């Protein structure tokens, strides 16, 4: 029986690279592409099948910034499959990123230049907005939509006889200082992306605590500094082209400059081959590339308090209850 991997955000960037790499590892895998744009996803499916004719690839329409879309997409997934072996929670946004020019030029000429480029710490702010569901867009897209997806797909994911894996695309930019239990959507701050990624790390720890006994394991990765549509929103493509020689050079001193989506997917593919029971839930797995272009995976202990992780998980459960009541009332009225 073919194993099944569902990937959100599979039509471009790291998600697309992951699809190609997974099929190169195992052509017997059934890939399910969960994407907002069905026509784009269909073109990706056709290209994947052309290069991997013995594979199976299906498409589900899903926008993780819309809870109704998530619920409807999950319903379709449950109709297609009896179980999921891998759920790659990869879709994410960094809307309207603003570069702190002063901090950028100050960092270039400091001893922290490598750390600055690796993590973007203190460099980026974003202008968030509210979705049709009433949530901050970054929070809903990067975290809460995926949380609802997991909840919807629990029957397909929880099998104690054979474990399933949740694999999150997090970031080195996930900073504890940008997250607060009193403001989980980061409505009062200017770094919602960093907050959402730290929230991802917290949820990962809580999910392991609550679901390992049911056969479901969760891990987080960071793809490194990758040139995708997300990073092109920070600086124009021509600027990144000018910076490429610098980043190639920095590879000899730091491992975070993976640069290409193929390289950035390294940790995602590595986890595909691991026994999830053997992994440390407090570890983040980092895609890394040497100065000579060799890819490898580095592990990093996360700055996570397990009690805070559990409180955050309970907060999400309470929020989910309120959301479902609201959706039921809306359905009843319509």
From TrEMBL:
Cellular compartments annotated: Endoplasmic reticulum membrane
Catalysed reactions listed for this entry: a 3beta-hydroxysteroid + NADP(+) = a 3-oxosteroid + NADPH + H(+); 3-dehydro-4alpha-methylzymosterol + NADPH + H(+) = 4alpha-methylzymosterol + NADP(+); zymosterone + NADPH + H(+) = zymosterol + NADP(+); 4alpha-methyl-5alpha-cholest-8-en-3-one + NADPH + H(+) = 4alpha-methyl-5alpha-cholest-8-en-3beta-ol + NADP(+)
Oxidoreductase listed as a keyword: yes
Pathway assigned to this chain's UniProt record: Steroid biosynthesis; zymosterol biosynthesis; zymosterol from lanosterol: step 5/6; Steroid biosynthesis; estrogen biosynthesis
Keywords: Endoplasmic reticulum, Glycoprotein, Lipid biosynthesis, Lipid metabolism, Membrane, NAD, NADP, Oxidoreductase, Steroid biosynthesis, Transmembrane, Transmembrane helix
CDD domains for the chain: 3KS_SDR_c
Family, per entry: Belongs to the short-chain dehydrogenases/reductases (SDR) family. ERG27 subfamily.
Quaternary structure (record): Binds to the short form of prolactin receptor.
Protein name (Swiss-Prot/TrEMBL): 3-keto-steroid reductase/17-beta-hydroxysteroid dehydrogenase 7
Organism encoding this protein: Mesocricetus auratus
Lineage of origin: Eukaryota, Metazoa, Chordata, Craniata, Vertebrata
Gene this chain is encoded by: Hsd17b7
């Amino acid at each position: 029986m073919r194993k099944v991997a569902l990937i959100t955000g599979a039509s471009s960037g790291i998600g697309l690279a992951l699809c190609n790499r997974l099929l190169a590892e195992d052509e017997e895998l059934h890939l399910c592409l969960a994407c907002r744009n069905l026509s784009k996803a269909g073109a990706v499916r056709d290209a994947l099948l052309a290069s991997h004719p013995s594979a199976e690839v299906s498409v589900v329409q899903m926008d993780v910034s819309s809870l109704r879309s998530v619920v409807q997409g999950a319903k379709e997934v449950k109709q297609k499959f009896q179980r999921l072996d891998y759920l790659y929670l990869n879709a994410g946004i960094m809307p309207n990123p603003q570069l702190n020019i002063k901090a950028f030029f100050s960092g270039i000429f400091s001893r922290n230049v490598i750390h600055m480029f690796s993590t973007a710490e203190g460099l980026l702010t974003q202008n968030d907005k509210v979705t049709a569901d009433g949530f901050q867009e970054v929070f809903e897209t990067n975290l809460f939509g995926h949380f609802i997806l997991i909840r919807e797909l629990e029957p397909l994911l929880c099998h104690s006889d054979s474990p399933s894996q949740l694999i999150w695309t997090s970031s080195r930019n996930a900073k504890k200082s940008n997250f607060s239990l009193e403001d989980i959507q980061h409505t009062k701050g200017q770094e919602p992306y960093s907050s959402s990624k730290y929230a991802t790390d917290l949820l990962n720890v809580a999910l392991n605590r609550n679901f390992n006994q049911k056969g479901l394991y969760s891990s987080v990765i960071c793809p490194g500094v990758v040139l995708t549509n997300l990073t092109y929103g920070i600086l124009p493509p021509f600027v990144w082209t000018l910076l490429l020689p610098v980043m190639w050079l920095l590879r000899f001193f730091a491992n975070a400059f993976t640069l290409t989506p193929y390289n950035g997917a390294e940790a995602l593919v590595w986890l595909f081959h691991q026994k999830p029971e053997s992994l440390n839930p407090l570890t983040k797995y980092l895609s890394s590339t040497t100065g000579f272009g060799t890819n490898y995976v580095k592990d990093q202990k996360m700055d996570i308090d397990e009690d805070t992780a559990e409180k955050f998980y309970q907060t999400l459960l309470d929020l989910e209850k309120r959301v479902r009541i609201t959706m039921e009332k809306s359905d009843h009225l319509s």
